[in-house]
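User: I'm writing a tutorial on reading structure tokens. Could you give me a worked example: one chain, its sequence, then its tokens, then a sentence or two explaining what the tokens reveal?
Assistant: Sure. Here is the example chain.
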Amino acid sequence: MPKITIVIPCYNEETRLPVREYRRFLFNAALDIYFVNDGSTDRTIRLLEDLKDQFPLQVKILSLEKNVGKAEAVRRGILAANTLDKNDIIGFMDADLSTPFDEVDYFIREFGNPRIHFVFGSRFSRIGAQIRRFNHRHYFGRIVATLVSVYLQIPIYDSQCGAKFFHVGFARKLFMEPFVSRWLFDVEIFRRIALSNMKVQDCALELPLHTWIEKGGSKISFSDYLKLPLEFYRVFRHYIRKRNAYAIYRLRWTNLSTLTTIYK
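And here are its predicted structure tokens:
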């Protein structure tokens, strides 16, 4: 059986961290949780240390001195889990458990398909599901999702859902380099897959969630929303440059290989 680890980025989550839910889940689940305390200035670290005292074998804490943002906090958490085998499963979820732990088994089952290396949640409102989102975030999310689908040229419904799971070896490749954006790093994950000569459709699965409850208290402010077009442009420009650099490298390598063959 693969080992399962969940990375939880935390920044000033003292009033939002559902400690009782964490306790209930850790008591019944055979997996590890890697909390990344992202430079919190409230009592978040004390709550995390209390959980570690109660579940010393399952809870790990990476505490950062300064706030680096969700993208970098998640990245460091995934890379810090360096004792896992490449076929184990690692993922990240939001600290407030807007995606509840009840969904975890739903994600993990999909890795029984040998072609799947990446499973990500989708907040798709439908009959039989409990999806509650604030209207302004839902509509803005639909705009972002449309831009992402056009940019990547693949039909992603919800690129920004904060619940994503990977085979560990796959995750290490995707998270090796720092991300360009603090908030649109999900888009970068998909772009990095494409740059690795893999098709997202061939290795990933978008999984409609049964439950997702918006808790409020988001760290994204209105001014952050206004900055998102610029963030999107930075991501677009960065990966255009990386694609062009990779194309030039491949062209030079092909030419060198051809010359070597001719002069043998």
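What the tokens reveal: Residues 222-262 form the longest helix (41 residues). The chain has a mean pLDDT of 87.
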